Amino acid sequence: MGTRDEILDAAAEVMRTQGFAKATTKSIAQVAGYSEAALYKHFDDKAAILLGVLHERLPDLAVTLQGLIASAGGSTVRANLTRLARTAIDFYVEGFPILVSLFSSQSLLTAHRRRMAELNAGPHKAQEGLVVYLRAEQRLGRIRRGVDLEAAAALLFGACFQRGFEVNFNQLTPAAEEVDAFATALVKTLYDALRPAN
């Protein structure tokens, strides 16, 4: 494991326990066993470290979405959406403690929002990716015409986010089978509204 990976491991630990707002580059460097200067050799700023944690230390929504888009027409829409929902639930369960502290300060949130825009990143990217996938499936006739794809994407991610919030708020540790069952039920309900009439 290299320096960058060790920094990301330390950052994930610090951000999970302290939240993004209270995590400092100094505390991340201390936990990683490096100087702050070493952090800046690999990351431009704390926002870049956060993105590294989100993309490399949490379940990867972007990779799952890219896989769905690339394989549109393969597998079933329902199976694809269930896999995505499962990944999204895990992402929000693990990411919620890190991200919630962004909202503790309006100035912090504004600065972070500005930095995410500069990096062409942010929570809207997952929803946009899902709409691209759903549109491809719609063109193939596997999703009913006239469905509001943006609303469908918002419903899926909104339910997954809510589940992540509930798990963290109630300090739950659901078994993998429970998460699978929730993802399956969620997608069945959504897919019933998306599937073409036979």
UniProtKB/TrEMBL annotation:
Describe the location of the HTH tetR-type domain by residue ranges. Answer: 1-61
InterPro entries reported in the protein's UniProt record: Homeodomain-like_sf, HTH-type_TetR-like_transc_reg, HTH_TetR, Tet_transcr_reg_TetR-rel_C_sf
Is-annotated flag, keyword Transcription regulation?
yes
Presence of the UniProt keyword Transcription in the record: yes
- Chain residues forming the annotated DNA-binding region: 24-43
Q: Name one Pfam family in it.
A: TetR_N
Query: Which key words are in the record?
Result: DNA-binding, Transcription, Transcription regulation
Organism domain of life: Bacteria
Task: Tell me which SUPFAM superfamilies the record gives.
Answer: Homeodomain-like, Tetracyclin repressor-like, C-terminal domain
What protein name is recorded for this chain? TetR/AcrR family transcriptional regulator
Q: From which source organism is this entry?
A: Kribbella alba
Traced from the root, the source organism's taxonomic lineage reads:
Bacteria, Bacillati, Actinomycetota, Actinomycetes, Propionibacteriales
